[in-house]
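Q: Got a minute? One more chain.
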Amino acid sequence: MTTPTSLDPRQAKARLHELTVIDVRTPGEYAGGHLPGALNIPLDQLDRALPDIRTAAARGEVLVVCASGARSENACRQLADKGIRTATLAGGTGAWAAQGHELDHPQGAACSTKASWGMERQVRLTAGSVVLLGLLLGLVVHPAFQLLSAGIAAGLVFSALTNTCGMAAMLAKLPWNRPSRADLDTALAGLRNR
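A: Always. Here it is, folded:
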C-alpha cells in the first residue's frame, strides 16, 4: 500500500493556480465550503470519473481533498491502483480553513445543493443513536440487543485502526449525500475543460 503524496495547505495555496482540485466529499459538505476552483466528485463516484481524472492527471498535478484528509488519502490510493498519480491535501479543508485560506460556496441554480451536516457529524449521530437504541432495547426487551451497541463499538475501533469508515460509506449513499446527475456531469465537464 502506497502512501499518497501530501501537500500542506500553504503549499497547495501557492500552487492552486496550477492544480486540478477534486473534492471527494458529499455534495452537501462541498456546498458548505470548498477550495476555490475545486470540482465535486464524491468518493463513491470516482470510477465513473476515472477517464476524465486520468486525462487531467496527464495534463498536470491533481490534488484530492476532503474534510480531514482520510477520504482523500483513500481516493488517492484507489487512483494509484488505476495508475493515476495524485496528491492529497494534508488535514483537508479543515486545515485549509484553519490557516485562514478562503473557501468558496456554490452559487446559482446549478449548484443549489443545500449544505448538510458533515460526514463525521452524521456518523457520530448515527453511531450514538444505534448505541443508545441497543442499550434501551437491551433493558426493555431482551439483553441480547446490547450486542447491537457492542457491534457499533467494534466498528468504531476498526474504523480508527484502519482509517476507514463503513458507516460513512453507507451514509454517503443517502439521498442528501448524493450528487444530482446534472451536478456530477457539470463537474466532469469542468474536469475535461481544465
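A: The CA atoms of residues 7 and 89 lie 5 Å apart.
Q: Perfect, thanks.
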